[in-house]
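step: validate -> pass
step: tokenize input -> pass
step: predict -> running
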Amino acid sequence: MAWHRVAAKTDVQEDAALGVEANGCPLALFRIGDRCYATSNICSHEFALLSDGYVEGEYVECPLHQGRFHIPTGKAQGTPVEEDVKTFAVKIEGDDVLVEVPEK
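step: predict -> pass
step: emit ->
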């Protein structure tokens, strides 16, 4: 696992998702209060980008079939999604958002 800079802290807006990539891994970044979170950007139900979804509080809704995921844990929140999405560790260094992803 290695840390990768994926965005500036100011790029990650509350109540929105930002699609980024780190070491070939598609990620969705979120800000809830003062904390940033990263999940896989691919819905576990069907291929759709969560960064194109709708963010409400601690949840993101997939734009394709309205499946919901809890952003901090990646937990699926009912039909049609049954499989959680992967989450990744995030840290802030100065104005940089770094995400820990596997090395290829």
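step: describe -> Residues 19 and 82 are 22 Å apart (CA to CA).
step: cleanup -> pass
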